[in-house]
Amino acid sequence: MVTLLLWMGAACSGPGPAPAPVACDDTPVPSANPPSAMGPGPAVGSGDTWFFAPDTGGWGGSVEADPRGGYRTKIGLWTSMTRPPAVTVRRVGGAETGSASFAPTSAGLPGPLPAELRFPSAGCWQVTARGATGGATIQVRVG
Fold first, then answer.
1. Are 30 and 138 in contact (CB under 8 A)?
2. What is the pTM of this model?
3. For the segment 4-55, what is each residue's pLDDT rounded down to a tens digit?
4. Nearest CA to 54 among 76, 32, 23?
5. Cα separation of 79 and 68, whole Å?
6. Cβ proximity of 93 and 126 under 8 Å
7. Among 60, 57, 48, which residue's Cα sits nearest to residue 113?
């Protein structure tokens, strides 16, 4: 009888508390000395690889639902290389990955490099761009 009561109590107790949500501070923290070739405005990065920071709000301010599923946003990169930097898009605290695609300007590289970031789900996402001599990492709040 005691075993039955213990089993019933364990079965009714549930799975326990839900995991705490992942904090997602997507506020841009501009770097002190972006390359003068980038032009004026805030930027995040180092060496040969930089993100153009939004003037107001967080990195997730322009994220929108994608009609094909998930979410997307456009972001500006700048590189002093002749090829795009390697970009990874990973969910913070999870195993999901997103993607990045580029739409080079007619001026080519080095220079500004418009990018579209895709996120398969809402949450906090870390986006890292790596060049040969530098890089930039940001968090993007999605959803």
1. no
2. 0.83
3. 333 334 444 445 444 455 689 999 999 989 999 999 889 999 999 999 999 8
4. 76
5. 30
6. no
7. 48
- For residue 133, the one-letter residue type is T
Rounded to whole angstroms, the Cα distance separating 94 from 92 reads: 6
Of 106, 48, 116, give the one whose Cα is nearest residue 82. Answer: 48
Q: Assess whether the previous peptide bond of 28 is cis (omega < 30° from 0).
A: no
Cα distance between residue 74 and residue 108, in whole Å: 18
β-strand partners of 137: 128
CA–CA distance, 58 with 30 (Å, rounded to integer): 12
Q: Which conformational region is residue 68 in: left (phi greater than 0), alpha (psi within -120 to 50 degrees), or beta?
A: alpha
Token reading at 45:
């990065």
Which pair of structure tokens corresponds to residue 63? 């994220």
Percent composition of the chain: helix, strand, coil (DSSP 3-state, to 5) = 15, 40, 50
pLDDT digits (tens, 9 = 90+) for 81-110: 999 999 999 999 999 999 999 999 999 999
Measured CA to CA, the distance from residue 73 to residue 137 in angstroms comes to 16
